[in-house]
Design a protein that fits this description.
This protein is mostly beta strands. Helices cover 10% and strands 52% of the residues. It has 1 helix and 8 strands. The strands form 2 sheets. Strands 1-2-3-6 form a 4-stranded antiparallel beta sheet, with no helix packed on it. Strand 2 and strand 3 form a beta hairpin. The longest helix has 16 residues.
């Protein structure tokens, strides 16, 4: 009996010494495909977070596309798509941001707005992704869609 208690204690001590993979926060990846302007268009937004052994990244993308169904609507009178990827080493520091804004009249964006940010991983690291789409619908109304996520700890 005493022999098995030592094994249990030894096993428990060994497990406590292992790095805690389960405690790492998973990447808060997000995607959205949302119909707007009476389903004449779709907003497509994505936030892709990832990490390697020493770095973590976020890639933000945003675009507006026509509905895949006939009859196809005219291109929107105006659109603006914005993507931002941000990092700060800790909650007390200011954000540093890479971003891209695309806008057009009577057309669709030829590519999504895209932004990427990479940072060294640490327990206090924060990465954030933002995607924003504004569309002036043919009927005269405006529609705005936003997708945002923050990754505290960058996977540690």
């Amino acid at each position: 009996m005493k022999h098995s208690n030592h094994r249990v204690a030894l096993l428990a001590a060994a497990l406590l010494c292992l790095p805690s993979i389960a405690a790492a926060s998973p990447p808060p990846d997000a995607t959205a495909r949302i119909p707007i302007c009476g389903s004449g268009y779709f907003v497509e937004m994505s936030l892709d977070f990832g990490n390697t052994g020493t770095t973590a990244t976020v890639v933000a993308k945003a675009k507006v596309v026509s509905t895949p169904f006939s009859p196809f609507p005219p291109a929107p009178p105006y659109y603006a798509v914005y993507a931002a990827a941000s990092h700060r080493p800790d909650a007390a520091s200011a954000w540093t941001t890479n971003d891209q804004n695309l806008e057009g009249y009577g057309s669709y964006p030829s590519s999504p707005a895209s932004a990427t940010k990479m940072a060294f991983r640490s327990a206090t690291c924060e990465l954030a992704g933002n995607a924003v789409v504004s569309v002036h619908c043919p009927g005269g109304n405006w529609e705005y869609k936003t997708l945002e996520r923050t990754w505290v700890g960058c996977g540690l």
